[in-house]
Design goal:
The structure holds two protein chains of two kinds.
Chain A lengths: L9 E6 L2 E5 L6 H15 L4 E6 L3 E6 L6 H12 L14 E8 L7 H7 L4 H9 L3 E6 L6 E4 L14 E4 L3 E5 L2 E4 L4 E3 L2 E5 L5 E2 L5 E2 L6 E6 L2 H6 L8
Parallel strand pairs in A: 5-15
Antiparallel strand pairs in A: 1-2, 2-4, 3-4, 5-12, 6-7, 6-15, 7-10, 8-11, 9-10, 9-12, 13-14
Chain B lengths: L1 E7 L2 E5 L19 H10 L8 E5 L3 E5 L3 E9 L3 E2 L2 E2 L4 E5 L4 E4 L4 E9 L35 E3 L23 E6 L8 H9 L2 E7 L3 E5 L13 E2 L4 E3 L7 E3 L6 E2 L3 E5 L1 H8 L6 E6 L2 H18 L1
Parallel strand pairs in B: 12-20
Antiparallel strand pairs in B: 1-4, 1-11, 2-3, 3-10, 4-9, 5-8, 5-10, 6-7, 6-9, 12-19, 13-14, 13-20, 14-17, 15-18, 16-17, 16-19
The chains are: A alpha+beta, B alpha+beta.
Keywords (chain A): ATP-binding, Hydrolase, Nucleotide-binding
GO molecular function, one term (chain A): hydrolase activity
InterPro entries (chain A): CT_C_D, Cyclophilin-like_dom_sf, PxpB
């Protein structure tokens, strides 16, 4: 069902060098698929210098030094209306699998989440790792992907006092969202474990492991596997 | 062939016109806080418009030249001296080996631009040398470091120099208090009273003003506004958090956010705003997108025509 979808998207100017395309008022899988498709279609468009897809919108930034605003916005209008809606959802979505060592040793909030949700630690791990998540948006810090949705049984609010330093690769949850910290930043999410793999590598061709629209799965690994893959235990 | 940093000052950063094409990965654009001053500095030296310069915030910054070149300084008047002789911004100067160039403290404005003939040479990261400290990207080292004592800033030496200055007509007025705002798609969600209040009040720059954004204090607007679903943030966006005090998001802004936006500061008004300091006062002035575009074309045409 594509009831909440606004298509073609509504185009609003944000300033003289940017416009926002709105695809829906609500967060929805189909909406995310359409946004991913339109982002792809616009990537080839001359004169567009940046695209910021998010949950229900796509911000488009254009090069006003070399291109005319009216020509660009007309091009954006026609390209963003060119997606074949019948193919939405049929396309193979890219799946990213992230190995995670779930343990209080690297997941200091695992026990509290289990207690608060009246579950065992094993249940929390099973629930978190048996869900396929979608990358709805990337932001907060470079490569930080907002993934949804976490199973209702393990939904927890953010911590009342954020940690000043969340270790690299920490896997955490907050409300209906989950994420992996790609760099060391302050953060208030509940930390369940840690991945040994790098989410971003600005020196590599691929840059970031997860892009908006991708599907993400967490694969539980043992302490030995974590260490063998280069995982670090310290950091708090 | 380089300038050597003798005294690093408060904040001196290598910048070009910014890192573009990576905002979908959460990487901000960076770039010069005062784009107009930056563009003029490169124009004065007939450099590529994207050639890397040093953005000097506040001053206390001293360099020693290890070779001859030609420089341009634009933007704030930071009481610069060349071998202890006062020099003024918005023009070029010849530099010889051993010369000492110093920026002391602000007389007008906050951020000065130092360009060198051919641009400063640094290895770009993701297509740009723009320094974003928070993201640990760009700059001399590639890891987002600000300039520090002993750094060598390479350039291609030259003894050719052309004495040039920006025409008086084109000089920005850093005393101007009106900041131009294009009202965005969320403007209509603010009440008539809030809109009137926003455009008729005086706002003061708080202590929390940096390359990421400027937090203002003054008449609260839109306190009843609810958060929105996080979306991309354009340069100059004016966010209204729940305390109703506007935040203008600038070059190092986060790429997405969930606060409602009352409008967007234009590129060149954002440049003026960036030259202001905590406790300075400003007022917002409505302009249409068409007016904003005309103003930009006019400024750009002045630079191009002059080249």
């Amino acid at each position: 069902m594509i009831a909440p979808l606004i298509y073609p998207p509504q185009l609003d100017l944000v300033s003289d060098h940017a416009c926002l395309l709105t695809f829906s008022k609500v967060i929805d899988d189909t909406v995310a698929d359409v946004i991913a498709q339109v982002t792809k279609a616009l990537r080839t468009c001359e004169g567009i210098i940046d695209l910021v897809p998010s949950y229900t919108t796509l911000l488009v930034i254009f090069d006003t030094d070399h291109y005319d605003r009216f020509k660009i916005t007309n091009k954006i209008k026609s390209l963003s209306a060119s997606v074949d809606l019948n193919t939405i959802g049929n396309n193979e979505r890219r799946e990213v699998i992230i190995p995670v060592y779930y343990d209080p040793e690297v997941g200091p909030d695992l026990e509290e989440v289990a207690t608060q949700c009246q579950l065992s630690i094993e249940d929390v791990i099973r629930l978190h790792s048996s869900t396929r998540y979608r990358a709805f948006a990337i932001g907060f810090s470079p490569g930080f992907a907002f993934l949804g949705n976490t199973p209702e049984a393990i939904r927890m609010p953010r911590k009342t006092t954020p940690r000043l330093k969340v270790p690299l690769g920490s896997v955490a949850i907050a409300e209906q969202q989950t994420a992996v910290y790609p760099s060391i930043t302050p953060g208030g999410w509940q930390i369940l474990g840690r991945t040994p793999i790098a989410l971003v590598d600005w020196q590599s061709e691929s840059l970031a492991l997860i892009e908006v629209g991708d599907m993400v799965r967490f694969d539980p690994i043992t302490r030995d596997e974590f260490l063998a893959q280069g995982g670090q235990l310290n950091g708090f | 062939m380089a300038f050597k940093v003798i005294q690093p000052g408060m904040l001196a950063l290598l910048q070009d016109l910014g890192r573009h094409g990576y905002q979908h990965l959460g990487i901000t654009s960076g770039g010069p806080m005062d784009e107009l001053a930056f563009r003029w500095a490169n124009a004065l030296l007939d450099n590529d418009s994207n050639a890397a310069q040093i953005e000097i915030t506040f001053g206390m910054f001293t360099l020693e030249a290890q070779a001859s070149t030609s420089i341009a300084i634009t933007g704030a008047d930071l009481r610069a001296t060349l071998n202890d002789k006062v020099i003024l911004p918005w023009q070029t100067y010849p530099i010889h080996k051993g010369d000492v160039l110093a920026f002391h403290q602000p007389r007008f404005g906050l951020r000065a631009y130092l360009a060198v003939k051919g641009g400063f040479l640094a290895q770009p990261v993701l297509g740009s040398v723009a320094t974003v400290m928070r993201e640990k990207l760009g700059g001399l080292t590639g890891a987002g470091d600000k300039l520090s004592k002993g750094n060598l800033l390479p350039f291609h030496a030259t003894t050719q120099h052309q004495q040039r200055a920006v025409p008086r007509l084109a000089l920005p007025n850093y005393d101007q208090v009106e900041i131009d705002v294009v009202t965005g798609y969320q403007f209509k969600h603010f009440s008539g009273l809030d809109r009137a209040r926003f455009f008729s009040s005086t706002y003061t720059l708080s202590q929390h003003c940096d390359r990421m954004g400027y937090r203002l204090t003054g008449a609260a607007v839109g306190r009843d506004q609810k958060g929105i679903i996080s979306e991309g943030i354009a340069y100059g966006a004016i966010q209204i958090p729940s305390d109703g005090q506007p935040i203008v998001l600038l070059r190092d802004r986060q790429t997405i956010g969930g606060y409602p936006k009352i409008g967007c500061v234009t590129n060149f008004s954002g440049a003026l705003l960036s030259q202001k300091k905590p406790d300075d006062s400003i007022g917002f002035r409505y302009i249409s997108v068409d007016q904003a575009e005309r103003e930009r074309h006019l400024q750009m045409a002045r630079i191009h025509q002059w080249r």
